[in-house]
Every structure is written in structure tokens, then in C-alpha cells.
Amino acid sequence: MDFSPNDTQSLVQQTARDYAQKTILPQAAAIDRDERFPADLLKGLADLGLMAVNVPAALGGAEAGVVAYSLAMTEIARTCASTAVTMAVTNMVGEVIARFGTKAQAERHCPKLADGTYAAGAFALSEPGAGSDAGAMRTTARKIDGGWVIDGQKMWITSGAHAGVMVVWARTGGPGTGGISCFLVEKGQKGLIIGHHEDKMGLRGSNTVSLTFDGCEVPDDALLGEVNGGFKIAMMALDGGRIGISSQAIGIATAALDEAIAYAKDRKQFDKPLADFQAIQWMIADSKTELDASRLLCLRAASMKERGVPFSKEASMSKVFSSEAAVRICNRAVQVLGGYGYTREFAAERHLRDVRVTTIYEGTSQVQKIVIARSVLK
Ligand code: COS
pLDDT category, 3, cuts 50, 70, 90? Predict the structure, then answer.
């Protein structure tokens, strides 16, 4: 079994690493501190093909595959998790439209997501009363002549204020998961109101807003997929999205562990480097082992998706394991750095704040376990 990346995957990984280390890293602390949406960096990512890594070339994507996407995501997240999550959701939206959209829908939106004409894409599924239980959503879409009228509220929408296009789920039928459809809503659409920006623990450079749809009228060709077939589109998109978040968690944890190792070698207490103490060595050994296990689970899920075999359970296993491990790894990094780790002088505290959400968004750890258990026990 060969775990080494092929030429395309290596090229995409190296391209992402170079851009991240040279251009993103020097700005990462300020993006967090100033809560700056990194529009310039996102355009830079688009210019390198990283906003549509797994989208067909005919639609403007890099067509480099899922493993390449995962490797690139990890490299960006090693430097700035806010930039990384915006990239992750945009890639997911491009893939959803390429896969489930009509030719016209894909040709209208995918090239603009890929080349940065759109600053980002957004995925509007969650609502104030429907997070883990996505099928309980209350936003509605009512059929009218020539289109649909969307009414309701969405919450925690990444890039909602900046997205050129957003994928929006709304109820078109009866209760439950079988009465939900999916729509493409463009920026500036009348009746789409951008709400308040969340004041978050981490990912402070990413944009997270609530949305209100107040008689938002969209044309017939805004419907993505079949009427009442939207829930399955959301679930399939999230299966892939979970590989992205897993890759993001791995990137943040890699940065935290690197910082802990460098600090442990440099800092002396009791006349010797921290790295000479077994207590520190064991923390670093645990982190390294958990990180490598996370990478292997993530690459397996990515490779299965790329090969077109069912990967839902494996994506959830990767997401729950790597995000929970990444929280532990970032927490240990703060511990190794001691008092310095609790200050903004080092990046460790930012990594811990940024990584925390990876066990929550795109399905909590508890939701991942529902998916895994249902698959194992069915
Ligand atoms: N791929 C394709 N179809 C899927 C699927 C998947 N991964 N998961 C579920 N489905 C289908 C089911 O087969 C079922 O189809 P039928 O009605 O034809 O039988 C339908 O979708 C409903 O599925 P299910 O009954 O499992 O839905 P539940 O309401 O029980 O919800 C969970 C299941 C909890 C897994 C789902 O609601 C979920 O993922 N919640 C988390 C949402 C989330 O991640 N939110 C974050 C938003 S982005 S920050």
C-alpha cells in the first residue's frame, strides 16, 4: 500500500504550502486580531486554482481530485484557519453545483467561484431551531408563476455577507426530510437580508452571519436538483465537507504541534531543555501519534470519495477522530508553552480557539457518531 502522493497531489500540496507560508502566515495573527475577512488572500487562492480543487476543468476548476484538495486544505489551515474555512465552504459549494446543478447552473456559477469573481460561496442549511436536526428546518419556499418565494431564517452561515452565490435549503413539501428542496440564491437578491455577524471564539477572520429571507423571489432555474430532493443533496455535500473540516483540523493541529516542538527544544528549565523531560516527550509523542492517525483516516476517506465508492461512514470517522484529536493536540501545545502559551505572543492560543469549532460545525462529533453507528448497525 503506497501512502505517498502522486505528482498532481504533490504539486497542489506544494503550491498551497508555498502560498500559505509566504503570503498567508505573515498576516494570520492580524487577521485574527482585527477580525479581517481575508478577501485578498482568497483571490490569491483562486488564482492558484485552490477555490475549486475538485471541480471539473471545463467549469474552471483545477480537477485535481479529493486527496489533492485535502492536502491543500491542511496546508492553508496550518497558517490561517479563517482563510481555510472560507476556502473549504467555497470548494464545497462549487462541487455541489457542479454535481447536482444543470449545465446552465454549473456554467453560470462554478467558473466565478473558481476564479475569485465571487469572493466565496455559502452553504445555508442551519437555522436557529434546526442545527443537528437539519430536517426540522422551517424556512419555506412557495411556488409562484415562474419561480419560488423563500421566507425564513438561517444561522451561522459562513461567508454569508460576501458570497456571490449561496446554496439555500427550504421546505417545499410536508414535514420531515422528504419535503425539503435546494435553491441557488445570488448576492444582492431582493428579500435576502444579511443579519448580524457572530462574535466568535475563533476563526475571527471568517464571516459568520444570520440570514433572513423575507419574500425572497427566485426564478424557476434557481432550483437545484429535484423538488423535495434537497435533503439528500445536503447530506451528500456534508459527507464531502467533513473531509475538508477533518483536513482543516489536521492543519491547525500540525501548526500547534510544530510550535510546541520548537518551544520544547528551545526553552530551558531546571538547566535543561523542556524536550529532555519525559513529561513533555510523552505529550509530544501522543500528539504526533494522534495527528498521524488523523491523517491516515482522512486520506482514506478522501481516496474513497475520489474513487467513487461510498465514503459517508469513513468521512464521519475521519471528522470525529481528527477534530477531537486536534483539540487535544492544540490544548497540549498551550500546556507545553506554559505562561507564554496563554498569551498572544505565540500562535498556540489562536490555534486552540480556532480548532474548537471543528468538533461542532459541518456536524458535531455526536452527529458523526450517529452516522457511523447507523452504518455499522444497519
Ligand atoms: N447520502 C445520501 N443520502 C443520505 C445520506 C447521505 N450521506 N444521509 C441520509 N441520507 C438520506 C437517507 O437515506 C434518507 O433517505 P430516505 O428518506 O429515502 O430513506 C434521508 O436522507 C433522511 O435521512 P435520515 O433519516 O438519516 O435523516 P435524519 O433526520 O435522521 O438525520 C443526520 C440524520 C443527523 C445524520 C443529519 O440530520 C445530519 O447530518 N445532521 C447534521 C447536519 C449538519 O452537519 N449541519 C451542519 C451544517 S453546515 S455548518
Answer: confident
d(CA 4, CA 16): 17
15-27 pLDDT, tens digit each: 999 999 999 999 9
Distance 159 CA to ligand 1 centre (A): 23
Q: How far is the CA of 97 from the centre of ligand 1 (A)?
A: 19
Q: How buried is residue 135: exposed, middle or buried, by Cβ count under 10 Å (0-12/13-18/19+)?
A: middle
Q: Which residue(s) pair with 141 in the sheet?
A: 150
Partners of residue 127 on adjacent β-strands: 130
Residue located via cell numbers 435549503: 169
pTM of the entire predicted model = 0.98
> Which position has the grid cell 465508492?
309
d(CA 111, CA 278) in angstroms, rounded, equals 53
Q: Which letter does DSSP use for residue 343 in this model? A: S
Give kind and range of the element (H or E) at residue 49.
Answer: none
Phi first, then psi: give them for residue 34, nearest 5 degrees: -90, 0
Residue 192, phi-psi category: left (phi > 0), alpha (psi -120 to 50), beta (remainder):
beta
Please state, in angstroms and rounded to a whole number, the distance separating the CA atoms of residues 225 and 142.
Answer: 16
- Rounded to an integer, what distance in angstroms lies between the CA atom of residue 273 and that of residue 17? 30
Domains and CATH numbers, the chain: 7-119 (1.10.540.10), 122-228 (2.40.110.10), 231-377 (1.20.140.10)
By most ligand atoms within 8 Å of CB, the mutation choice from 86, 126, 177, 231 for ligand 1 is 177
Assign 156 to helix, strand or coil: strand
361 Cα nearest atom in ligand 1: 49
Tens of pLDDT, residues 340-371: 999 999 999 999 999 999 999 999 999 999 99
* Residue nearest to ligand 1 atom 48, measured at CA: 362
* Number of residues that this document lists for the chain: 378
Q: Is 48 in the pocket of ligand 1 (CB under 6 A)?
A: no
| Nearest by Cα to 363 from 125, 151, 187 | 125
Q: What is the tens place of the pLDDT at every residue in 47-85?
A: 999 999 999 999 999 999 999 999 999 999 999 999 999
In the chain the first and final C-alpha atoms are separated, in Å, by 29
